[in-house]
Amino acid sequence: MPAVRQIGRKQAGTDRPAAGTPTRARIRANAWNPRLDRLFSQVEGVWSAARVGVLVAMRLNHRRPEMLLDERGVSALPDLPTADFTFDPHQPGACVAGLRPYRVNSYRLEGETLGDKFVLHNYGHGGGGITLSWGCAARVRDLVLTHQRRSKVVERDIAVIGAGVMGLTAATLLLDLGLNVTIYSDRKPVETTSYKAGGQWAVSLLEFSKNFDKVRELQYILRTAYTMFKAAIGKGFGVSEVDNYSVNATSGIDVVHDLVPGLLPQREYLQRLPFEGHNVSGYRYRTLLVEPPIFIPRLERDLKARGVTFVNRKFINSADVLTSLTQKIIINCTGLGAKNLWNDSDMFPLRGQLAMLRPQPNLEYLYGQNGYLFPRNDHVVIGGTVEETCDEAFDPVKCQELVGYMAGVFGQRSPEPMPEFFIHHPRNEVLVDPRLSISP
Predict the structure, then answer these.
(1) DSSP 297-340
(2) Which percentage of the chain shows pLDDT scores above 70?
(3) What number of CA atoms fall less than 13 Å from residue 248's CA on the CB side?
(4) Of residues 394, 419, 421, the one with CA closest to residue 409
(5) Rounded to an integer, what distance in angstroms lies between the CA atom of residue 395 and that of residue 57?
(6) Helix (H) or strand (E) holding 212
(7) Which residues neighbour 305 within 8 Å (Cβ) at sequence distance 6 or greater?
(8) Which of 2-11, 34-43, 232-241 has the lowest mean pLDDT?
(9) What are phi and psi of 402, to 5 degrees?
(10) Parallel, antiparallel, or unpaired for β 372-375 and 329-332?
(11) 334 Cβ neighbours under 8 A, 6+ residues apart
């Protein structure tokens, strides 16, 4: 299978690899080397001294295999239950696939005036849509308020395009302003990529900008999203606090520690991971699990109960949007659809596949490295693949490989080499670790 190509375009005066460069080459270009040192030296010019210390530690060794000052060591723990890896990929619902909306040069969260319309773009969050959703929705709400004040005209009717998690959460907070919201989408919420997500609260497959204002924005988004999700625990939104175990440091959670220190509990270094088949050290994190089959329908029900209308509509292009919608304020939450709808060449589809095992209530942990295993109420979800393709269909063979590899990790089968389409395969490192894909 060919390597996932470098996602991006050569820009004048930059060190970014050209389009078509294999991911291995991008890793070489973006690894901890003098070129990245120059990037960080620019960041350090605007970040505080406290942040510089974090960045230096990251630059020295982003894998950080030894204990840090901000983590606690824990002696041996008793083994936790092992999953039953019985799996038939040909059973209905056993395999799921979705296309993550990855965007080069960071997600897009900004407004623009087009004729008599104010369009606010909110898309390109990679595999972190659910994680960032409430924070991005709060930013959308604030930008709408700012636009209303500056224009000195209060538009009561708002159009939201897209019924994934970004559209649903944005609509929810806009309703809190007393506005009338209509959601337009060619998919029902349960048909979107958001519904197919694993659900761990972590930054995943997200490129973000080193621009000072964008860094501050991301800090705000992370802090707001985590706070709102945590407040929803026990209220029927499918949110719970849970331990995540991993062999290596989990970049998607560590980047949150780096950007917003103290938001999450400190990680713990374990002398041995408490699982059958594991005679290695590792880490335990405390994070959140957001179960999409509960969260997404709950948002939809609440919106409908508050009078929001869902309109089944597919737009051809941006001109179609601007001429056919009567609302003066449009929130564009179309995810991957923005590639064609708004002619955004920075958008790329990254397919993820999931193997859905039977639910196993005795499993009360997340396993988040070398693929992932997330026990939820509906299924035990095994995932962690990445492929650049527009094909949204699942592959039963690859889903079986997912399960087989994870069963080997837990000592239930003979160990197997990590498939190249795994998100944690070395060739995909720059996609997995947001700190390796920082944009100018």
Answers:
(1) HHHHHHHHHTTPEEEE---SSHHHHHHH---SEEEE--GGGHHH
(2) 80
(3) 16
(4) 419
(5) 40
(6) helix 212-231
(7) none
(8) 34-43
(9) -55, -50
(10) unpaired
(11) 123, 161, 162, 341, 342
396: three-class secondary structure by DSSP: helix
Residue given tokens 């092992």 in the structure block: 82
DSSP state letter for 419:
P
pLDDT, residue 105, reads 84
Question: CA–CA separation, 50 vs 177, rounded Å?
Answer: 37
Side chain identity at 348, as an amino acid letter? Answer: F
With b for 16 or more beta-carbon neighbours within 10 A and e for fewer, the 316-344 pattern comes to eebeebeeebebbbbbbbbbbbbbebbeb
Report the 10 Å Cβ neighbour count for 293.
17
| Contact criterion met (CB below 8 Å) for 36 and 27 | no
Tokens linked to 390: 């527009």
Range among 208-217, 292-301, 363-372 with highest mean pLDDT value = 292-301
CB atoms within 10 A of CB 159: 24
Supply the DSSP symbol for 151. Answer: H
Pair 226, 128: CB distance under 8 Å = no
Length of the chain: 440
Burial of 397 (0-12, 13-18, 19+ CB in 10 A): exposed
Helix axes 212-231, 129-151, angle to 10 degrees: 110
Residue type, 90: H
Q: Convert 222-246 to b/e letters by CB count within 10 Å (16 or more is b).
A: bbbbbebbeebeeeebbbbebbbbb
- Left, alpha or beta for 61 (phi > 0: left; psi -120 to 50: alpha)? beta
Under a CB-based contact definition with an 8 Å cutoff, are residues 398 and 353 in contact? yes
Determine the Cα–Cα distance for residues 310 and 219; give it in Å rounded to an integer: 32
Phi, psi of 159 (to 5 degrees): -105, 130
Q: Where are the alpha helices (DSSP H) in 105-208?
A: 129-151, 165-175
Please give the Cα distance from 352 to 350 (Å, whole number): 7
pLDDT at 294: 98
| Dist CA 131 CA 226 (whole Å) | 8
Helix (H) or strand (E) holding 184: strand 180-185
- The reply to whether the predicted model has a pTM over 0.85 is no
> 330, 121 in Cβ contact below 8 A?
no
Beta bridge partners of 185: 312
Q: What is the pLDDT of residues 392-427, one digit of tens each?
A: 999 999 999 999 999 999 999 998 888 889 888 887
Upper half-sphere CA count for residue 229 (Cβ side, 13 Å):
32
Residue in the block written with tokens 């597919």: 314
